[in-house]
Amino acid sequence: MTNTFTMWGNSTGYGAVYGTESFVLNGYMNTVLLEGADDTVSIAAGGDDSINLNATGFTNNVTDVIDLGQGLLNSISAASALYGANVSISGGYGANDISLVNHWGTTVLALGNAGASVNHPGLGLNDNITLNGDATNEVSFTSGDGADIAIGVAGDGFTNDTSSVALFGVYDQLTGGDEAFTVTGSSGLASIALGNGNSTLTLGGAENTVSLGTGNDNVTFLDGFDTLSFGAGGAGSTDIIDFARFGNSISGGNENFNIAATNGSVHGTLGDGNDSITAGHGYLTLGAGATNTATNSIDLTQGHDGVILNGGVDRLTLQDVHGGHDNVTLNGTMLGTQLTAGGSFDDIVLKADANAAISEVGGAQGLGLIVMGDATFGTGNISVTGLAQDDLAHITLIGISAFTETVDDTPAGGITLNFAHGSLDLIGVQAISNSLITTVSVH
């Protein structure tokens, strides 16, 4: 048997410890204090009501269903924590405040009003939600902008718990702990900061800002001008990122990144993970931690790129289908960089103890190469091949010392240059002879 109570504004209803109850709220400023019974609360009209799901601490393993209807400015809370409860809250026209702790329970929020969003787009604004992380949480919106959602806290360690959030409007904010999040929706300008769980995000709209921890994450942006950052560390984790359009940026720790922006652009700085990047345009710095152990693969297809590689075994391909001018800097101990450039004039700077194979393919203008050596440079081996007969190459060697060289570049290493037109400048070069330069024809 269900006991039903109707309230008419500015009144207080008390729930029972046992049984099944139903409260129907009319008017404004009603207060409902629930206990251990299974309860249903419906707001028929009005708003500014207060509903307490656990007024005195006797509520465990209950089922509570709250229908906010067309109400707004309502407050739903639990004075004492719930344990193992099933809580479902739906509806509302916005500005509702929901703050619950439901340990090991299930909390489902389906907020907003689809009909209201069509007839009154402003309705559903600014819901404020706070939930605990050690639960199964599902939060979704069918209308409204500017929701503020907090689920768990960073560092809470609840990586085995799951939370899903489906955003709707613009300017939504989501902060989360270490749970495994699934986040979808958004019309743009969302701000999301999550902990170290393994999360999957698929976000619409432009200009979203996302910060993630050190988990294995999968992030897809459906528009452009998005910003993505990762916490420090993260070695051994793998993140899969798919950017859309242009104006995107990324900064990361030492995770292994698999990044695609095939028809767009990405700017960013990454740590010492093993990275794979495919993009139309790229302005990238890899190996910022300089451990020189990473293996990176980068394909940039549309030219006008800038790449800085700080050590590791790298493969970089600049296809330049639109004839872009690329700038590449290789720092530190390059353990075997393979660089394929093409299109317009590409500027490449090799620093310190380099070991690189550079191939210029399909170049309409040629190559600019600067090699900056040091006392240990003699262990390096640089070869430049593939320049066409009409290509123009400018090669500058700076501070090279103590070379020994054989024609086949073994065993001491050295420099092999093969180009048809251009110049060779030696600046501060010591103990070097023409035997170092193989197949050079300067015109």
Q: How would you portray this structure in words?
A:
By secondary structure, the protein is mainly β. The protein has a domain at 303-443. The chain is built from 1 helix and 39 strands. The strands form 2 sheets. The protein has a 37-stranded parallel sheet that branches. A two-stranded parallel sheet has the order 9-12. Mean pLDDT is 77; it is low at 116-122, 374-380, 400-421 and 428-443.
How many helices? The count is 1
The main pleated sheet reads as: 37 strands, parallel
- Rounded to the nearest angstrom, the distance between the terminal CA atoms is 100 Å
User: Spans of 5+ residues with little confidence (pLDDT < 50)?
Assistant: 116-122, 374-380, 400-421, 428-443
| Radius of gyration computed on alpha carbons | 31 Å
Mean pLDDT: 77
- Give the DSSP E fraction (strand runs of 2 or more residues): over 45%
Q: What is the global morphology?
A: elongated
Class inferred from helices and paired strands:
mainly beta
How much helicity do the residues have? under 10%
Tally of extended strands? 39
